[in-house]
Fold this sequence. Notes:
Helix 14 crosses helix 16. Helix content is 46%, strand content 12%.
Amino acid sequence: MTRSQAVNQLSLLLVDDDPLIGETLAYFLGRDFAIVPASNRFEALAKVRQMPRPPEIALVDLGLPPTPHRPDEGFALVTELLALAPAMAIVILSGQNDEANARHARALGAADFVAKPADPEKLRQTLRNLLAYETRPTAAGIELVGQSPPMERLHAQLRQYANSPYPVLIEGESGSGKELAAEALHRLSDRATRPYLALNCAAISPSLVEPALFGQAKGAFTGAAGSRAGYFEEAGEGTLFLDEIGELPLDLQPKLLRVLENGQYQRVGETQQRISRARVVTATNRDLKKEVREGRFRADLYHRLSVFTIIVPPLREMGSDRFLLLEHFRQLYAKSNHDRLFSLTPEAEARWGGYHFPGNVRELRNIVIRLMAKHDGHPISGTDLEAELDTDGAEAAPATMPRDDGQLTTLALRQLRETTHFSLDETLQRWEAAYIAAAQQLTHGNVSQAAKLLGINRTTLYNRMEVLARSPGNGTETGTR
Length: 481
């Protein structure tokens, strides 16, 4: 099979709220991909969840409703798509070649950034070049690379817990490699020759999680045309990995707890008791203790899942492992794509060693892919490397406000004395915009998490963001269309 024939079988998620742009891109790219169109974040996520397998690649506009003049929806979609499908290659398409937005999108896990208006042929070639690289590590890339003390602790825990029958909870930031840790637990165990199944709890509709886990009887619900085994049954005596366990619906959590306690479960629509002997491994990037305190996750299920807890360290804590990972991915992609190895100049090497990698190993891997594609074996200068890094996002500290009322009054007095034309509405609006921007920065554009951080519900945050976007002169519009 030629590469062209292989690409023709791939699907592309195209997210843009401008019908003309969407139809034009679908026309030009439809020769190479099966196009899955969407006009907003919620439609895109719903379509991905309904598909038998996620699209291999996505083309995402940053400016999406309900805030089309801000990048927040696009940033959030990148985060959520990678939670659903970590192997998906995402290309950001934006109306302005905004370097800060490009850097931040790549730090979140986007593979590349293309400015509008994009030449269709150039865009097609960008997509093809990305797909020339493996977006999911193969058996050769499953190894958790690193020799730093945090990685040594991780390797020791994996060996220690591998053969235990008890559940393991894997915690870590997005892009840190939790899925690889779960696979390593299975490979190191006596169950290695038995099935290893993985289900992303965020990747399917909440109403379908129960039949996916436990199976279904014919006619159990609309669309249940036949009986079907679930993940617990198909895993047998192997390992069942439940990723994004924090997304498990609250009403389903007692049923999972029952399986963990005595192995018993029922297919949806059946009364027959079945027994599972699978070893359960779960993962999350949420703070499950906080979820328990706030009533979104059952305490008894949390304690059962976390009999053993493994923390996959963020890349910023792994010291010189970033150079081992650089070499690992350089060799991996050069070998698989017959590319020439690039090198770092001393200036670029120093910058690589000091960068914070907010997107963790996934970000590092994507940087290597872009450098391989763009520089074709040539030395990488500090300037070349700087263009690939998110230098504006994670290092900024959020603003703080004094908690003492007297201090606040002093600040207010000073501002009123020094300002000729003071506007309370404008001042409050600017503070609100600053806190919303800081919350989105800290949560990498995830609106749900930003709302939690601000102590308001998601709908309220959306409404306030929309009001701010419409307000003239508030300094929050980014012109991402």
